[in-house]
Amino acid sequence: MKKNDFAFGKTNFLMIGISMVIVIIGFLLMTGAESTRETFNPEVFSPMRVKIAPVICLVGFLSIIAGIMYRPRKK
Predict the structure, then answer these.
(1) What is the dihedral of CA 39, 45, 50, 52, to 10 degrees?
(2) pLDDT score, position 3
(3) What pTM, to 2 d.p., does this model score?
């Protein structure tokens, strides 16, 4: 196969891979202890789990789109 036969280049795969790691980090930041019917855990509504982690996931998903859409300049 020629180098031009692939839809994505090395840069695209690198950008998509880094973006997927960012999304995974965002999801990991959303995890934590849960509340039950007997006890209420106020950590469920912490700013890290409610605001920061979803924004990190959003940035990761937008970066994945950018990695898919990226086209290197032809020389």
Answers:
(1) -110
(2) 57
(3) 0.82
